[in-house]
Predict the structure of 3-hydroxybutyryl-CoA dehydrogenase.
Amino acid sequence: MATPLSDTPLSPLSPLRTIAVVGLGTMGTGIAEVLARAGREVIGIDLSEARTGEALAVLRAATARAVARGRLTEEQRAAALARVRTATDLTAAADADLVIEVAPESYEIKHQIFRELDGIVRPETILATGTNALSVTRLAADSARPERVLGLHFFNPAPAMKLVEVVSSVLTAPQAVAAVTDLAVELGKEPVAVGDRPGFVADGLLFGYLNQAAAMYEARYASREDIDAAMRLGCGLPMGPLALLDLIGVDTARTVLEAMYAESRDRLHAPAPILKQLSEAGLTGRKAGRGFYTYEAPGSGTVVPDALTPAEGGTAAPGRAVRSVGVAGSGTMASGIAEVFAKAGYQVVLAARSEEKAQAAKARIGKSLAHSVDKGRLTAEAAAQILDLIAPAGSYDAFADVDLAVEAVAEDLEVKRQLFGTLDKVCKPGAVLATTTSSLPVVACARATSRPQDVIGMHFFNPAPAMKLVEVVRTVLTADDVHATVREVCGRTRKHAVDCGDRAGFIVNALLFPYLNNAIKMVQEHYATLDDIDAAMRLGGGYPMGPFELLDVVGLDVSLAIEKVLHREFRDPGLAPAPLLEHLVAAGCLGRKTGRGFREYARR
């Protein structure tokens, strides 16, 4: 029997006036809140009476918080709660205009619900599944009226997340799609129309990335803390991938990936074995109190130290003294790195192939510092002192007395090898030699010298003064005190150092570029539009930029070069650059720098 939460009625707003939500877990309860606050009559259905009671308590608490924050009045709260009633039997959905199923990700469970609803709801009632992993087409085909079945994929937490994926099968009637799309807009959401494939757009791209992060951790390439910090600081993501897997649920992620792999047979979607191991051990993430991390209690988001937590105090080996730094190069990255070191108080030699180029690079730093003065971040006196620490030079001979030499020249292995040969000759014994490469083997630079133990990778991110991350890349030959030196330097320059081994892409690019490549494949296969994919990842994944916005900023030629390096290193067919990317680069459409990439840009 249905139990009203309140007796205050309110007139509905649209043709989809009464909406049943089947399954009152976190997602179902969130959807019910969104609907009720938007003026819909809501029937919350769950077989568990305890669950319906919990859902009502959550709704009361959530709406009370909204009042406290000034987002609802007490009258609006009372009216919203009045529009919600609960039941423990599907027959309560008999009068619904729309039913949204948010049951566990099991085809058998969802099929049973849809089969029962066929005998309960009116012929015109739309049936929506909230699945993000199972086939909407299969559920529709088993329904008595497949034309009214579609997917309506909200994102967690439903009250806060703007994205809703509207999923059509080949059987879905356009009128049904139009009705739920209009509803999503009225709910204040941004609907994206997609076809039926596991993961749809947002999760289809997100879960492949999460899977690769899990595999990277499983291979002991980098620590969980460093993987997560790298993606937060290097890509501006709100959460690292392993922390996000714990939030989503390791078992849920495994289910989604299994469904994706069953359809794509792409090895990038084959669940990393660690996901199975954690799931079967009951270590499913926050909800269990332990997953990749350990939490204060089941359901808590507070991470507590465990046996894998790094010890305080950093590396055991003492580093070498660094008072002066040489930066080789005259481009944006070189001048940015020189600015970083000068701000930290180091004496900096900025050397280029000519005095003129070095002076131009120092002038670029001067403009950057002047901008900081204009913004109130520096005083004019401090900016002048920083600039005085930078000595431009037209020859690498000026590096004779530096303690650390950092190259930031063209991303060309032969160019870098020649430079390291020169550094080997001009730099004093004991100087640390670092490369800023983002994709080339550090050990190849090391072997160009007579002191490979002194060579290490320091991958800064652009713009270097603003970006906090530095990937510290040890080769099998790098000495412990060289590693310790670079970690200490990162600390003094207020950068967050993450450790990783010498393989293509390091952490960030190895996880970022396969995701970008998969987004290109979606467009290439006409699955979704550029705009819909970008919106899906900004709104559903919390990315600061959609993949195509980012590709055009990075440069399609740069992106293609990195994709080729990853494919060559890992030999995985799924990493082969998308033909569409190759075609655009061949046509000279390189992104913002040429005025056209995936989109066209106004010429400056």
